[in-house]
Amino acid sequence: MVGFEFTPDQNAAIESKSNMVITACPGSGKTSVIVEKIRREVAGLQAYKGVIGITFTIKASKELKQRCKQGGLDTKSSFFGTIDHFCLSELIFPFISRLYGKSDYTVECKSYTELDESLKIGLPPLDDIGHEFNTDDYITYENKFKLLHDNGVVLLESIGVIAVQIVTDSLACRNYILSKYTSLYIDEYQDSSQPQHELFLSLLELGLKAVAVGDVKQSIYAWRGSDPQYIQSLITKPEIFEHHIVNVNHRCHPSIVNYANRIFDSNCLLLPTSDIRVYQWVLNGTQHDVAEYLTESINKLLADKIVQSLSNIAILVRNNNSLSLLETKLGVPNRIFGENPLSQINTSKTKLMSSLLAYYLDHKVLINDVVEVAEHYSSFSPSSLKDLRASVKSISDLDSSTIKNAILELTNKILDEKVIEIEVNALERVLSDKNILKQYMPENKNEVQIMTLHKSKGLEFDIVFHLDLYDWIMPKREFISGCYDEVFASWEQDLNLHYVGITRAKEHCILVNSTNRFNHEGVIKQGKKSQFMMLDGLTGLYK
Where is the UvrD-like helicase ATP-binding domain (predicted)? Predict the structure, then answer.
């Protein structure tokens, strides 16, 4: 890549043509490494060949695809998308009939919550945390999966399990994958689930070169079945996978890197720096007083030209309750990435409605971005794809007074399924809430970015205010009647989340506690400092 000089560690990973695991810290340029590897590989492929590039989010896959195509490079027949999109479009929709026979209905992907109650019979309560399928469950639920397919449904929560079974059982599928793809790249592997890990191994065994990229310290999704043990298991197989470590953080100021590393290892070596840019604040009052103090601080940062625009500042919080506390008291322009009624319902229809709304409000969102979402849930012929694109384009110039009905009608047309009342209500709530609508609009440089720590993953800002560093909140403690010991619900996951928050900051990171806090019931409690602010090895690394 022109104008970019890779480090020796990055070059070693780029130049190797072996199966590999790349463990990469925040700001290490791992995406640049993946992009360069893919660009070099596809340049030598025939037009009908390509690679598989899997990312954790649709936004990340769009970025990966754009960067790989930079300068007009032809990525040939490569796939870029999420793991669910790959499983549906390349494995399940084309080949599921070889497992279950032909369905009398158009097969669509639906989540557990979208199923009629009669179709939920025989399934575990998949809307509860802790109930996820793994590949060992396939035999138990095979007949149920077939029954759902007979009714035109592929269950969203079973995608990984069914995809592995298709690769195992279908020779036609295996031949197709081998004829089209040469390599498999999966980013954020620390957040892989058991079925996703098994699919990775199945495609490796099939003959694809396999590259897994991740960081155990950024594993923050254990509550939905992700587990860093899977990337660790790859590292323990040096006879199969080369292990490349890319651990130079080019993003964060050295003092931020030092602090972030010390929360895991109190004796780790420190980078040389004479300037400390991590701060621990203990402010008087509650979260409301914190918001007022942040208003003054942010205005001063702008006045002193320490930051060029408000959008370079982020306020990160533990949960959505904290977002609402900030919303009422923060006195600077902001954009809050809170709960979205459409995302909360999380059905195929609400996801499509979200993508249509984004296309309508943000000129950077393309018709193809909407098409890719639709293809998650249905398969389309070339002629129907042409019609789909024309239909999506038709909403771009509509008046705001007609956009609701247009989105509802188009969603019904694309997915061939009636939008139900709860989904209509969710769309109406979004359209009537200016704060939620902002989430769909292009970035405004005059708005501070406010979001939960989970949503900040993959982002970077000049200045980060990391809030909610209270005992009981971060890390989360469990209340056990009669027990006075500190019992933590998920110390490791919370520490990883803290690490993610710290390493979003490029120039300055401010860790904030206050003497009092509102609990989830609105009652004022003492705001004791988080255990994370008092870890061994941090003395002298903050102001």
Answer: 3-253
The answer to whether 29 is annotated as binding is yes
Task: Name 154's bridge partners.
Answer: 109
**107-157 tens-digit pLDDT:** 889 999 889 999 999 999 998 888 899 999 999 999 999 999 999 999 999
28 is in an annotated binding site: yes
Strand order in the sheet with 242-246: 79-82, 50-55, 181-186, 209-214, 20-24, 242-246
Q: Is 30 annotated as a binding residue?
A: yes
* Structural contact between residues 190 and 214, judged by C-beta atoms closer than 8 angstroms: yes
Those residues with Cβ within 8 angstroms of residue 450's Cβ, 6 or more apart along the chain or in another chain: 314, 315, 316, 317, 323, 326, 330, 334, 335, 336, 337
Q: Do domains 8-86+167-246 and 254-333+444-533 have the same CATH topology?
A: yes
- pLDDT for position 1: 47
pLDDT tens readout for residues 512-524: 999 999 988 889 9
User: Was 27 annotated as part of a binding site?
Assistant: yes
25 in a labelled binding site: yes
Cβ count within 10 A of residue 361: 16
- Domain extents in the chain: 8-86+167-246, 100-155, 254-333+444-533, 341-439
**Residue 525: C-alpha distances to residues 469, 511, 518 (Å):** 14, 19, 6
Q: Are the CB atoms for 501 and 475 separated by under 8 Å?
A: no
How many angstroms separate the Cα of 514 from the Cα of each of 181, 283, 293, 526? 54, 4, 11, 9
Tokens coding 378:
């249905």
Q: What are the DSSP E strand ranges found in 114-270?
A: 153-155, 181-186, 209-214, 242-246
Sheet holding 278-283, edge to edge: 278-283, 505-514, 461-466, 313-317, 448-452, 334-337
31 marked as binding residue: yes
Fold designation for 8-86+167-246: Rossmann fold (3.40.50)
> Which CATH number does 254-333+444-533 carry?
3.40.50.300
Band (3; pLDDT cuts 50, 70, 90): low
Closest CA to 318 of 38, 155, 519: 519
| Model confidence pTM above 0.90 | yes
